[in-house]
Design a protein that fits this description.
alpha+beta, tt1808, chain A, six-stranded mixed sheet, two-stranded antiparallel sheet, 31% strand
C-alpha cells in the first residue's frame, strides 16, 4: 500500500530523527522520492557555478545551494542552486520568489529534464536551467505554464548563458575551472 505524505509530516519526521537529516529525498505529490547519488563531476560543476555567481551577481540577488523549495503542502524539491532576491529572504522562498533554479544533472538527467522541470513550470517558477555535468550543455526553460515551459533553449558550453535575473554575466560553462 502507498501512503501520501505532507511536507509538514516529512519535516516532523526529520526533526524527530525518524528520517536522518542527511537523507537525500524529495517529496513529489505526497510520494517520497530518493535522490540519485551525486558524482564528483556533479559536485565540481555545482561548486564552481556557486563560486562564479557569488563573485558576479549583483548584491540584491543571492544564490543558495541545495535548499528546500516548498512548492505546496505535499511537494518539496531541493534544486542544486536557487536564486532569490535578498529583500525576499531565504525564509520566504517559494515558487513566486524563486527567480531561477539550476539542476546539475549527471545520473539524473532524464528526471531533471522531464519531471522536475514540469514541476517547476506547474508551480510557476520563472526559469529553470538543467546543466549536463559531463558535456556542459545547458537547457534553459522560461515562461512557465500549467503544461510546462513555453520557451526552451539549448545552450552549448561555448555560448554565454542568458540570465534574465541580472545584467549579462557572460558565463560560458566551458570557462569554469572544473578541477
Amino acid at each position: 500500500m502507498r501512503r501520501r505524505w505532507s511536507v509538514a509530516e516529512i519535516e516532523a519526521m526529520l526533526r524527530a530523527g525518524v528520517i536522518p537529516e542527511n537523507e537525500r529525498i524529495e517529496l513529489i505529490g505526497g510520494e517520497v522520492v530518493p535522490m540519485s547519488p551525486k558524482g564528483i563531476r556533479h559536485e565540481v560543476v555545482k561548486v564552481n557555478l556557486t563560486r562564479y555567481f557569488d563573485r558576479h551577481l549583483p548584491e540584491e540577488i543571492l544564490v543558495a545551494q541545495e535548499t528546500t523549495l516548498r512548492l505546496d503542502q505535499d511537494t518539496f524539491v531541493e534544486p542544486d542552486l536557487i536564486f532569490y532576491r535578498r529583500a525576499d529572504g531565504l525564509a520566504n522562498l517559494s515558487p513566486e520568489t524563486a527567480l531561477l533554479v539550476v539542476e546539475v544533472a549527471d545520473a539524473s538527467l532524464a528526471y531533471d529534464l522531464h519531471r522536475k522541470v514540469r514541476l517547476y513550470a506547474a508551480f510557476g517558477v520563472r526559469a529553470a536551467i538543467v546543466i549536463e555535468a559531463q558535456s556542459l550543455v545547458a537547457h534553459l526553460h522560461r515562461s512557465p505554464g500549467p503544461e510546462g515551459y513555453r520557451e526552451r533553449l539549448t545552450i552549448g558550453p561555448d555560448e554565454p548563458l542568458p540570465f534574465d535575473i541580472a545584467p549579462p554575466l557572460g558565463l560560458r560553462l566551458r570557462d569554469l575551472p572544473l578541477v
